[in-house]
TrEMBL record, chain A:
UniProt keyword Transmembrane present: yes
Taxonomic lineage: Bacteria, Pseudomonadati, Pseudomonadota, Alphaproteobacteria, Sneathiellales
Name of the protein described by the UniProt record: Branched-chain amino acid ABC transporter permease
Protein family membership: Belongs to the binding-protein-dependent transport system permease family. LivHM subfamily.
Protein's organism: Sneathiella marina
A Pfam family that the UniProt record links to this protein: BPD_transp_2
Alphabetically ordered keywords of this record: Amino-acid transport, Cell membrane, Membrane, Transmembrane, Transmembrane helix, Transport
From TrEMBL, chain B:
Compartment(s) of residence: Cell membrane
Stored Pfam families: BPD_transp_2 (PF02653)
Name this polypeptide is given: Branched-chain amino acid ABC transporter permease
Membrane topology: Multi-pass membrane protein
Top-level taxon of origin: Bacteria
InterPro entries referenced in this protein's UniProt entry, alphabetically: ABC_transp_permease, LivM-like
Major location (coarse): membrane
Transmembrane segment boundaries: 27-44, 50-69, 76-95, 101-123, 130-149, 188-206, 236-256, 276-302, 314-337
UniProt entry keywords in alphabetical sequence: Cell membrane, Membrane, Transmembrane, Transmembrane helix
Length: 301, 360
């Protein structure tokens, strides 16, 4: 009986840890969803933006020696400038191109930002510590990582905030109009450029927050932008256009891959976390191409 | 003036359907091939051949493969590295499992296995498109990489996970002698033969019914289906041909270029760099694959060598970061300014030569 209870506790621990890691994935996925929802661009650069934001944040703290709230504001400013430049130099020139061209352009942006960020701020691993509690916490004998708990709360707050932003504010409605139809939005007097700058800035802010969370967990280094690749299956599962979808997808992927690693992994060699999420997403795609909460795509051959 | 088509008439169907209908093109191709086959091995140093020409040829072949899929059939793939890995590792299994199998056949079998895997991962393309498919091919990339690291059978249970390719040797017919490709110049010729044959075959395939089907699917899949191209066969054949070429390229990379190889050599970065080759070189163009591969192979060497000549000493990691930035800028630049890539510049040049010395 004792043994069974131990097993059960272990299962719960794995599950909770997976779910909370999942919220960290969701944080990254949110950035993708924001840009996709508001401009129809699938932004591959979200991971690079997260790395760049976190690098800037830590770099400003190091070089200028300012307290972290100041560094945070400056980092947000940098992301806004980045958003402006992306619109001015890249997206503005690619209006009305096919989505796949825009996607490839964001791969280009990814490489540029990765190289640029590391040129400016150096490529050594940086410690990020702004006083987010880390370490284990025991609730009913179940071990939970404090950082993951905080990340879960932050993700929840951000989702609520973004949901209100999208549905209740004027800017939010304009964003959705742009996503539906560039031409129509333009003709009712919505400035495409303003919208893009706003949404890329917000995505930059989301990236910064995700970067701070992941940076606290892993240290700020290049591999952060690889973590972001994990957000892709989350998106597929949740649907590209749905903010709640990003959260639910993140939870499923997070929990699924932890459980798979613990309970299936040992039988087939371990370290299956890298691809399990993708396989899950791919199998899922075959049955429901639009994702759990995505809008139905009618064109299909 | 130099590129005049007038006066060149086709008087038979055979002439009309020739692969290079223009005399200038034929002469140009023969010149290029002469230089590649005789000029380069005679003039270039061992270092140049083994560090630049061989990888360039192999990467060009992989880029050709991806171009079939992405440039001609319009299916974006980020799993090129994975398909190359399949080619390399399966060729290794054939070479060690059946030592009497001729080396050319071994490499082609690697490609065929890769084609099979490509078809498997191409199946989702029937229901999903664009970046959804890109994510599905990422699944292939990560899964294949993991498989070769974790499953000992593929590496014959070598402890380090590294495979060592057998020496390249071709048995001469009617004798027991073997011709061994041991110097870099010989290896270069070996690679060149493969690349030239496969490139010509691909060029012919593009002009055939199959190739037109790929382009029709790329341009508008629904219309393509209406005029009678079956999406299933068309898309899967694109995946098969593409991953065949990538698989052969991977096998060559392992057997000719590196000799010993580990799965990490075919990581996600390899996939990206090959995607960059076709974007910069030109989507949907055979020549673009070659120009793009040349560009991407030469740029790091340029960045490593030119700044020191100018008296600037860049740190190693800085060079890598600058490389990243240049790639990023080039991608965006070409997508905005010249979606057909560097290959388009060549065809503009041809137009100019046609009317030279007059501007129009």
């Amino acid at each position: 009986m004792q043994n069974f209870l131990g097993e059960f506790y272990f299962f719960i621990e794995v599950l909770i840890s997976g779910l909370l890691t999942g919220t960290l994935y969701s944080l990254i996925a949110l950035g993708f969803v924001l840009i996709f929802k508001a401009s129809g661009v699938f932004n591959f650069a979200q991971g690079a933006m997260m790395l760049f934001a976190a690098l800037s944040f830590v770099g400003i703290q190091e070089k200028l020696g300012v307290p972290w709230p100041v560094a945070f504001v400056l980092a947000v400013l940098i992301m806004v400038i980045l958003a402006y430049l992306v619109d001015k130099l890249v997206l503005g020139k690619l209006v009305n191109q096919e989505p796949i061209i825009l996607f490839m352009a964001t791969i280009g942006i990814t490489f540029f930002i990765d190289g640029f960020g590391q040129t400016v701020w150096g490529s050594d691993i940086k410690v990020l510590d702004i006083g987010i509690p880390t370490g284990p916490l025991f609730i009913f004998d179940i071990l939970i990582d404090k950082l993951e708990l905080v990340a879960g709360v932050v993700a929840g707050v951000m989702v609520a905030g973004l949901a209100i932003f999208f549905s209740k504010t004027k800017v939010g409605r304009a964003l959705r109009a742009v996503a539906d139809d560039h031409q129509a939005a333009l003709s009712v007097g919505i400035s495409l450029h303003h919208i893009w700058i706003i949404v890329w800035s917000v995505a930059g802010l989301v990236g910064l927050i995700a970067g701070i969370m992941w940076g606290t967990k892993l240290g700020v280094q290049f591999s952060l932008s690889l973590v972001a690749l994990k957000a892709l299956p989350v998106l597929i599962l949740g649907g590209f256009t749905s903010i709640p979808g990003a959260i639910v997808g993140g939870l499923i992927i997070g929990a699924g891959e932890k459980l798979a690693e613990i309970y299936i992994g040992p039988f087939i060699g371990g370290a299956i976390e890298n691809w399990f999420a993708y396989m899950l997403a791919m199998v899922f795609l075959l049955f429901r191409p639009q994702g759990l909460f995505g809008e139905k795509i009618i064109e299909r051959v | 003036m130099f590129y005049r088509e007038s006066g060149q008439f086709s008087s038979s169907y055979k002439q009309d359907q020739a692969i290079f209908p223009l005399r200038q093109d034929r002469i140009g191709l023969i010149l290029i091939l002469l230089v590649a086959f005789f000029g380069v091995p005679l003039v270039a140093s061992d270092y140049l051949i083994s560090a630049i020409f061989i990888p360039f040829l192999i990467l060009a072949l992989a880029a050709l493969g991806l171009n079939v899929l992405t440039g001609y059939a319009g299916q974006l793939s980020l799993g090129t590295g994975g398909f190359m890995a399949v080619g390399a590792f399966m060729a290794y299994k054939f070479a060690t499992g059946m030592p009497e199998m001729p080396i050319v056949l071994v490499l082609l079998m690697g490609g065929l296995m890769s084609a099979g895997v490509g078809i498997m991962f191409g199946i989702p393309s029937l229901r999903i498109k664009g970046f959804y498919l890109a994510v599905a091919t990422l699944a292939a990339q990560f899964f294949i990489e993991w498989l070769f690291i974790k499953v000992g059978w593929f590496t014959n249970y070598s402890a380090s996970g590294v495979i060592t390719a057998p020496p390249l040797a071709i048995g001469l017919p009617f004798t027991s002698l073997e011709y061994v490709f041991d110097t870099s110049a010989k290896k270069y010729i070996f690679t060149l033969c493969f690349v030239v044959v496969l490139a010509l075959a691909t060029k012919n395939l593009i002009r055939s019914h199959i190739g037109r089907g790929w382009m029709a699917i790329r341009d508008m899949d629904i219309a393509a289906e209406i005029i009678g191209f079956k999406p299933l066969q068309t898309k899967l054949s694109a995946f098969a041909v593409s991953s065949f070429l990538c698989g052969v390229a991977g096998a060559l990379w392992a057997f000719v270029h590196l000799g010993t190889v580990e799965p990490e050599a075919f990581g996600i970065n390899r996939s990206f760099s090959i995607l960059f080759m076709i974007i910069i070189g030109g989507l949907g163009s055979i020549m673009g694959a070659f120009i793009g591969a040349a560009f991407i192979t030469l740029l790091p060497i340029f960045l490593n060598n030119v700044p020191p000549m100018l008296g600037m000493n860049l740190a190693v990691d800085l060079v890598v970061h600058i490389e990243f930035m240049v790639f990023g800028i080039m991608i965006v630049f070409f997508l905005i300014v010249e979606p057909h890539g560097l290959a388009r510049l060549w065809s503009i040049g041809k137009e100019k030569l046609r009317t030279w010395p007059f501007p129009y």
